[in-house]
């Protein structure tokens, strides 16, 4: 099922239209559905160890489905049902550590109790998407690569294949998959705005 939502975020110059593709319980052709996505939210329940154990497999599927792109997709791992603290099976530190080891952003929310937390998850995903699109790596990767000297040489940069002209941009998330589309002119205007400051 596809849901549509228009978001207004402080860092954007115009509203952002999302198409959210929910793939929960739809194992057939999941990878095909993921190919058009530029970002993913992988959601698990903090009260369900099995859903947490699926995160690594889903991250692999996201990476494999988008492997021919010039940059990794933005991926946000979200622990849901924070309101069920008394039923917690997966500790916060476990989720955070898994996300870090997979090079993903991480957040815990209660979809049931807080619209603001859900909104914050989309905002965090958009921020991660912008960083990956601009630099080709995640904010998580950048934090850890600061410790390395000259991890990417100029020669490596020269050998990178050119990036194709952008089509509309989309986000997809398994278990709450989202798709974001906006026009080329918005990105051009945003780039011009950022470059002019």
From TrEMBL:
EC nos: 3.6.5.2
GO MF: G protein activity; GTP binding
SUPFAM superfamilies: P-loop containing nucleoside triphosphate hydrolases
Domain of life: Eukaryota
Keyword terms of this UniProt record: Hydrolase
Catalytic activity, as annotated: GTP + H2O = GDP + phosphate + H(+)
Keyword Zinc assigned: no
Keyword Mitochondrion included in the entry's annotation: no
Similarity annotation: Belongs to the small GTPase superfamily. Ras family.
Protein's recorded name: small monomeric GTPase
Gene source species: Strongylocentrotus purpuratus (Purple sea urchin)
């Amino acid at each position: 099922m596809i849901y549509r939502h228009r978001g207004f975020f402080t860092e954007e110059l115009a509203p952002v239209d999302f198409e959210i593709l929910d793939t929960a319980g739809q194992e057939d052709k999941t990878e095909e559905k993921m190919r058009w996505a530029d970002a993913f939210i992988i959601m698990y329940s903090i009260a369900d160890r099995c859903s947490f154990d699926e995160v690594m497999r889903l991250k692999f599927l996201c990476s494999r489905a988008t492997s021919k792109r010039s940059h990794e997709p933005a991926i946000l791992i979200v622990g849901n049902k924070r309101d069920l603290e008394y039923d917690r099976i997966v500790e916060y530190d476990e989720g955070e550590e898994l996300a870090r080891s997979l090079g993903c952003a991480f957040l815990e929310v209660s979809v049931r109790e807080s619209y603001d937390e859900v909104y914050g998850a989309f905002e965090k995903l958009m921020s991660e998407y912008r960083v990956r699109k601009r630099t080709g790596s995640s904010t998580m990767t950048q934090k850890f690569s600061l410790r390395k000297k000259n991890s990417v040489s100029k020669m490596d940069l020269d050998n990178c294949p050119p990036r194709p002209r952008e089509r509309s941009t989309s986000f997809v998330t398994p278990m709450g998959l989202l798709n974001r589309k906006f026009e080329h002119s918005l990105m051009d205007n945003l780039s011009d705005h950022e470059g002019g400051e």
